[in-house]
Amino acid sequence: MSGVTILDDFASTLLFRRSVTPPPTRDIERLSDGVYHVDQHDEDHVYLLTVQCIPRVRLEFDRPFTVGEIAGVPADLVEVTVANHVEVTLDATPGAQRFDEGAPSGSSPAEELAQITVTVADDAGTSYQLTSGQAGGPGTEWQVRWNFQPAPPPTARHLTLHFTAPGTAPAEIRLPLPAN
Question: pTM score, two decimals?
């Protein structure tokens, strides 16, 4: 088993209370806050796992920004948070005509909103990559969320978000990052 797999399994078990099947034999010792010694009983290796607490910062803006429209429904940027990644959340404009007549059969509202593409940039020239996303869910049927990595570097002062919705003009929003 590779060292990365061992640490992934350990982190999953420790952080998410999930166990691998069957669990490998290992000894785990807490050395200090957030630092663990992991011994898989491999005669050539032991592992030092560091868990770091990262603050989550919600970027401030006064009102939602409309960034496009899908099937006649305006989509708003409602939240941007920064932690060990950048999280961008869109939601349908409250009270907007819903997708009842414009959505393809079988698609959910969030799947429709997910047609909007987004890219992230900053003034430090960081290359952001889309790493995951979520479209809808219980209580969030009208919401789509994207995660981009890496986190902005300390030298970045602004994030710029570019949105493109099919059939509408692109939108660009520039948000200040908090001072470190």
Answer: 0.75
